[in-house]
Each structure stands twice: as C-alpha cells, then as structure tokens.
Design a protein that fits this description.
By secondary structure, the chain is mostly helical. It folds into 2 domains: 143 residues, no CATH class; 137 residues, 2-Layer Sandwich (Zincin-like). The protein contains 10 helices and 6 strands, in the order H-H-E-E-E-H-H-H-H-H-E-E-E-H-H-H. A hairpin with a 2-residue loop joins strand 2 and strand 3. Helix 3 crosses helix 5. It starts with a helix and ends with a helix. The N terminus is likely disordered. Bound molecules: zinc ion. The site of zinc ion (ZN) has 5 residues, from helix 3.
Length: 293
C-alpha cells in the first residue's frame, strides 16, 4: 500500500548535493551558456551560516561552490538557492574562482554582481529571494540554529568574564576615553562634524586575534584589543589606532594615503612610534598579559 501511495504522489524534492548539482546545470544552461568554461565546478552544501549564503573558490584546477547548509531545508524557497548559485556564477564569469580572466579588480564593488544577474535574466529570481530573506531569514535562522547561538553566547559570557579583570580594573583606560580621543583625532585630521560615524569599544579578543584593532562593518563599530585598556601600553599606540581608522574609513584603505594624511595632520612621529612599539613589544605583551590563555 505504501509503495502505491508513494508512486502516486509527487515526491518532495530531496535536497542533497546531487540535487544542487542539477540546479547548477540548469542555471548554467539557461543563464550562463555563453560563458567560457573555466575550471570544472563542484557544488556542495557547506556549513550552516547566518550571514554567508554561498562562496566560490578554486583549488587544484577545480572550482568549489559551497551553499549554506540551511538551504537544504524545504522551507527555503528554491529561488533563494538559485539566486545564490547565480551570484556565485557571476563571480565565476568575472574570473573569481574560475581561472578565467579577471574582469574587475574587486568582486562586489560597483554592484557588478547585481548588474550581471540583471543582464542574464536573473533579476526576478534575485528579487523573490531577497524578499523572502528580508521577511523570513531571521526567524528561520533562529528556529534552526538555537544550538549554535547558545554555544556562541556561552563562549561570549566566559570571555566577557575573563576580560572584565582587565577592563574593569581601577585605572584602566575606559571606552569613554576612547570616544573623547576619537573626537579629538577627527578634529585634527579635519573631518567635518559627524563623519565618519562609528562607535568605538573594547574587543574581548580571542588569543588568535593578533591585531590591535578590528572594524566591524555590519555593526559600524571599531573595536580595540582589550589589552589596550592597560596603561602600560603608551597613549600614542591607542591614538594611532584611532587615527588610522578615522582616516581609512573616510578616505581610502591604501596605507600610502593614510600615512600621507597622518603626516599632514602632524602625526608622522606618532605613527612611527606606534609602529615601532607594535613591532618590538606587542607580541610579547600579548603573550604575558592575555586573559584567555
Ligand atoms: Zn559574492
């Protein structure tokens, strides 16, 4: 009886890697038929992720496209997967992960991916996918990935606890001081009032985070390594980090440009002192004083 029922009903598409390869074949044939063959493409479901929907990379003469494992769930519309495959295929076309000639210096700048998708008749799929994501992704992710989030917040709590010994120690540099210093720096480099707009906060750095500061684009927060709250680290090191990002975020990421702007603002010596300190002392300081070891 069961067999008859199964044969008569439309089988639900079961989304495994073979199914994914089928989607890729169809999308290539319909929308990318004119694109030269670069490396042969493997496509697979990767790990579950909140923000990363797909990726493309090349290894040993083959292309690997990874699709968010959460998209294997039938609750996610096929359009979301198709749009993600289309996105990665646009990168492939532009010479990213494909061995084909690079058409653009950067993969996303100037909306080149969106333009490619529109040109290839994938604007509608992209639109449907985007609408679904806006309306449902947050809740969908929460419902499927409680375990990840719970583990993450437990880790975060432990780190905050261990960092509090340094950050809440009497006499430590405060976030308030960072804000005041940032304000001064912005004036000094001639930024107009209110630009660039970003928050500054301490980073509960993991032992692997070796940098002195990190820019969190999504949250628009500059985080300085928590050890910089320790006053044994000279003020000029902190000032340099703030100046570096203040200039970088309003002008350019090129070190040459940043350096020139610093010299123009009378911070040339400060920059060389800070860089020298980092070269000579940072690694050892971090090793001795990191709270998470
Ligand atoms: Zn991309």
């Amino acid at each position: 009886m069961e067999q008859i029922a199964a044969a008569n009903s439309e089988p639900l598409p079961f989304r495994d890697n073979a199914w994914l390869a089928g989607r890729l074949t169809e999308i290539r044939a319909v929308h990318f038929a004119d694109v030269r063959n670069g490396y042969p493409i493997d496509i697979r479901f990767g790990t579950r992720a909140r923000y990363r929907f797909g990726s493309i990379s090349a290894r040993n003469g083959r292309t690997l496209i990874l699709i968010n494992a959460l998209f294997s769930d039938p609750a996610v519309p096929v359009a979301v997967i198709d749009a993600t495959i289309g996105h990665e295929m646009a990168h492939y076309t532009h010479g990213y992960g494909s061995g084909l000639p690079r058409l653009y210096a950067e993969p996303h700048r100037g909306g080149v991916v969106e333009k490619e998708l529109a040109r290839r008749g994938l604007a509608q799929v992209e639109h449907v996918s985007e609408e679904w994501r806006k309306a449902n992704w947050e809740a969908f992710y929460e419902s499927r990935c409680q375990d990840i989030e719970t583990r993450k917040s437990a880790r975060t709590d432990i780190a905050a606890d261990q960092w509090s010994g340094i950050l809440l120690k009497p006499g430590a540099r405060t976030e308030e001081e960072l804000r005041i210093q940032l304000h001064k720096t912005l004036k000094r480099i001639g930024a107009r009032a209110g630009e660039p707009v970003f928050e500054v906060a301490w980073l509960h750095a993991t032992p692997r985070q070796a940098g002195l500061s990190y820019w969190y684009h999504r949250e628009k927060v500059l985080r300085l390594h928590g050890l910089l709250a320790d006053r044994r680290i000279p003020d000029f090191v902190v000032e340099f980090e703030l100046a570096y990002w203040a200039i970088r975020l309003r002008t350019s990421s090129s070190w040459e440009v940043i350096q020139r702007a610093m010299v123009a603002a009378g911070m040339g010596a400060l920059a060389s002192n800070a860089l020298a300190w980092r070269r000579k002392s940072w690694t050892a300081f971090k090793k001795r004083n990191h709270p998470l070891r």
